[in-house]
Amino acid sequence: MTQDLLPITRIPRTGLPAHAVVVGDPARAAAVAALLDGAEEVSYHREYRVFSGSWKGLPVVVASHGVGGPGAILLFQELADAGVRVLLRFGTAGAMKPGIADGDLVIAEAAVRDDGVTQQLLPPEYPAVSSPEAVFALQRAARAAGAPHHRGVVWTRAAFQPGLLPLFSYDGAGLAAIEMELSALLVTASLRGLVAGGVLVVDGANADELVDDEGTSVYDPHRDVVAAGVEKGAVVSLEALRLLAEEYGL
């Protein structure tokens, strides 16, 4: 019955596991779900593809949110409405400082709220911060997986391509990476009392000083080094959920 489904994502109002990995690409949601035991597709409406299954005995949700904060926040809100209480974003990002290589993981401690949606919900002074337990669990899982990883603040920016307006510069601010949805998740989690964090696979360089004159760092997220990082990041995300549940009691 339609009244038993939430309006935007068409997921059930009740019965979903409390732990979720959220990704941008519906195909990536299917790939992460393939790592689960007993994976089943719960729904697929618009960009929102949702699976359930279990990882090492922990029931989990894997869901896609599409590109950009405004659409993604609708998934986060409806997952919370459906009973999800722990959400980890697993995505891709561009490196913002030297020493972070393609295929490396960036574990977000916080995010700059340039997402295009939370500014319409809360004053800009309100922070977008990861749950400390999520940061620690992701770091432990990355170490166990042997995945090169870094911790830091990321920049969530709504515009993917440059436009006519001058780009605000965070040069010297020490940002680790740039992506498009995480701050929307972190703000939603703070407002709803959820546990949230994010781990991002670097798929290119975004800071001017990291782009070489020969153009070898032109954006191409379809390289083998990125695919290898995505494979490790999927395991890290799921294992971090298990750690949060079993060792942190979340």
UniProtKB/TrEMBL annotation:
Q: Which reaction does it catalyse?
A: uridine + phosphate = alpha-D-ribose 1-phosphate + uracil
* Residue intervals of the Nucleoside phosphorylase domain: 19-238
Top EC group: transferase
Q: What domain of life does the native source organism fall in?
A: Bacteria
According to its UniProt record, the EC number is: 2.4.2.3
What InterPro entries does the record point to?
Answer: Nucleoside_phosphorylase_d (IPR000845), Nucleoside_phosphorylase_sf (IPR035994)
**Which named protein is this?**
Uridine phosphorylase
Q: Which organism is it from?
A: Streptomyces justiciae
